[in-house]
Amino acid sequence: MAVALFISPVQAQQTDPQSGPQSDPQSGPLADPLAAVVTIHAKIKPGARTARSLGPEREGSGVVIDGDGLVLTIGYLILEAESARVTAPGGESVPAAIIGYDQDSGFGLLRASRPLGVRPVELGSSAGLRPGQPVLVVGRGGPRPIVAARVVSRRPFAGYWEYLLEKAIFTSPPHPRYGGAALLDAGGRLVGIGSLLVNDA
After folding, report:
1. Residues 6 or more apart from 180 whose CB is under 8 A from it?
2. pTM (2 decimals)?
3. Taking a C-beta distance cutoff of 8 angstroms, is the pair 171, 181 a contact?
4. Residue, of 13 and 42, whose pLDDT is higher
């Protein structure tokens, strides 16, 4: 049975309301799970090492995580890209700067050239996810953008391309557009980013 493999995002920062930065008043659980999910289009540099295996043009999803257009996605969508665009839920497409790719986590970051007018998702914590917990998988494109799923297991995942996750999140059923899809907990908080389809649940 195919399952979607997710990777855990950074922990949400906890701060004292009297002494630390405040959370964005626009953040919090979303009434519409698709509200903070955008489409990413990336064009890869000519002759790039990954063009043959991942394609010269790539498309997937990303999640808006702040009010200035910062988008979290899976890194392979933007790896070796020369340009990228993000398309907001309303259909407007804007150029995006590639901020970086983190090889350890597999995450990629982009910033839209201007704010997208999208309410950012709240960052949650994947630390408490346990097998059997219900989650939502949300990605742009395809006939089923939102898939109700469950956590199947938490365990290491090693890719043949020397990629290792110590506590990958395995979920089922899979999402048809898993690349960069958001994994949301019951409170609508972001707890994972879609990475792969695998056969071993």
Report:
1. 40, 60, 61, 62, 63, 73, 74, 77, 139, 193, 194
2. 0.85
3. no
4. 42
